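To: structure subgroup
Subject: Chain for Friday's discussion

All,

I'm putting the inputs and outputs inline so they're searchable in the archive.
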Amino acid sequence: MAVSSFAQVPSTLGYQARLSTASGLPASGAYSIVFSLYSANAGGTAIWTETQNLTLINGELSVALGELTPIPPNLFDKPLFLGI
């Protein structure tokens, strides 16, 4: 007897980072940050974009991408590159 199992495509993608100002200090305060997914590591047009309004403390950034603009499940079948 054969049993098939399929993993469900995630509806969001977690992302964490530290953001610094141009002078190298940790960013703090309110920011509107645009996240984009690309199918190539340079050039091209974004295949998905979402803008999140975040409050950073000491440069800490933690978001769930796809929370506001769903990421189409078919995008996860190829390598993706994140632009911020």
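Points worth raising on Friday:
The CA atoms of residues 76 and 84 lie 19 Å apart.
The longest strand covers residues 29-38.

D.
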